[in-house]
Write a structure and sequence with these properties.
Number of strands: 3
Structural class: mainly alpha
Radius of gyration: 23 Å
Mean pLDDT: 96
Shape: globular
Low-confidence stretches: none
């Protein structure tokens, strides 16, 4: 019965995701939560209109600088802007121009965040497509529902950041590789190679996409396919060096040196994933994010062989994160590419353990339920000891079969009711989110 209506259910999930992301789209995260939104858009607009990359940056390597005040904010405009490849800037700039922007000083959130909205809904869809391809449609639907409603993910996907561009196309490349593994049709592998090469032209750390697929091929001992894949990715990536040489090679190389040394990359970068739960530039304690890490590590320990298509990409981005991505305060979007894989891990956890292992069921309910209770009820109506303890009792019923026989039905009903309430609290949390 569920299979018959799976596309209707998926459509409803996509509508829900669109609704949550479009609510207060231009308000939260607020203007200035990250002015990267302007940096990417200005880069693209100037490339299109003036054929020179220009945007804002405070790095001393640039020679041509100009201080401007725009929307009551100081920006140092530099050109040629070479610290990032141009592809995502071109996408963001093109979208802004198509939505009525005249030039870089006509940009505001109403002209650009529609792109983030489209990418966010596309990501929900591709979470389903990828998870259903690797597992089955039930995991796909559950993972897409979770991805649609988790507060950190829903609100974070509203900003015009490169990470929100990377996620759907990374998932698409993985879907194509999964198809290649099942069919041995080289077109799937080759198209995935083109996508991964282009992703690096959006941002260099997106080499994580190519690394993930190489790891998959090596894990399966498909060495020839790995090298054929790289033979597509590397020439596309090399275009960035031609781009840098064309505009200013010395600035380009000096910026590379800066990028490799500019931040304190150490154990703190990893530790901050758990101690500083940034959404964008504000801390949001979201139990879904914490439990996603737990579920992913459980999968790694339990059965890497069965889940390699999810875990190897997760580990590939983790490797790039450790190697090159800093613990920079107020930059929560660096964590976003982890979330599709932690969400799929949660979906697999629920299938494997929910109402089967009572302690783990209780642990899941506590992590997710109490956090979204805080983000919804407490934010709207104020903290209540009675409500808090009522939820503890409701969640605690899931543990009763460990101590009292023949109470499984009561515990199961309580757990499913709790799960339903938690999804409702997710939705409430997203609508209630603000930065006041």
């Amino acid at each position: 019965m569920l299979q018959k209506y799976r596309y209707i259910i998926l459509g409803l999930i996509l509508i829900l995701g669109l609704w949550l992301r479009s609510d207060k789209l231009y308000t939260w995260p607020r203007l200035g939560a990250t002015f990267d939104e302007y940096a990417w858009t200005w880069l693209g607009i100037n490339l299109i209109q003036n054929h020179v990359p220009e945007s804002w940056s405070y790095h001393p390597q640039y020679k041509q600088k100009k201080l401007v005040i725009y929307q009551k904010t100081n920006f140092v405009l530099v050109k040629p802007y070479l610290e990032h490849p141009p592809l995502f800037g071109l996408v963001a700039g093109t979208f802004a121009l198509l939505t009525g922007t005249k030039d870089m000083f006509h940009v505001d959130l109403t002209h650009i965040r529609g792109l983030a909205l489209l990418l966010g809904v596309l990501s929900i869809f591709l979470v389903y497509v990828f998870a259903a391809q690797v597992y089955d449609y039930k995991i796909g639907l559950l993972a897409s529902l979770i991805y649609s409603t988790v507060p950190t993910i829903a609100v974070g996907s509203r900003i015009v950041e490169n990470e929100n561009f990377f996620i759907p196309f990374f998932l698409l490349s993985l879907y194509l590789i999964s198809r290649f593994i099942k069919t041995n049709n080289p077109w799937f592998r080759n198209i995935a190679g083109v996508i991964c090469g282009l992703l690096i032209l959006a941002k260099v750390p997106w080499i994580a996409g190519a690394l993930a697929i190489v790891l998959i091929f090596f894990y399966l001992k498909k060495y020839k396919d790995a090298f054929k894949f790289l033979a597509i990715v590397i020439p596309i990536f090399s275009l960035f060096f031609l781009y840098g040489a064309y505009y200013d090679w010395n600035i380009f190389i000096n910026l590379w040196k800066l990028q490799l040394q500019r931040y304190d990359i150490a154990f703190n970068s990893i530790f901050a994933l758990f101690t500083s739960p940034y959404l964008a530039d504000r801390l949001v304690v979201d139990g879904w994010i914490y439990f996603g890490w737990f579920a992913a590590f459980m999968l790694i320990v339990k059965d890497l062989k069965k889940n390699y298509m999810v875990l190897l990409p997760f580990l590939a981005y983790f490797a790039i994160f450790i190697f090159a991505i800093p613990n920079e305060p107020d930059h929560g979007w660096y964590r976003y590419p982890f979330y599709p894989f932690t969400v799929i891990s949660i979906a697999l956890f629920l299938k494997e353990y929910f109402n089967k292992n009572y302690f783990l069921t209780f642990l899941f309910l506590i992590f997710t339920g109490l956090s979204v209770l805080q983000l919804s009820w407490a934010q709207s109506l104020g903290f209540s000891f009675m409500v808090f303890r009522g939820f503890l009792i409701l969640f605690g019923i899931s543990l009763v079969p460990l101590f009292i026989p023949k109470t499984e039905k009561i515990a199961n009903f309580s757990s499913y009711l709790s799960l339903f309430i938690i999804f409702l609290l997710n939705i409430w949390s997203v609508f209630k989110y603000n930065e006041q």
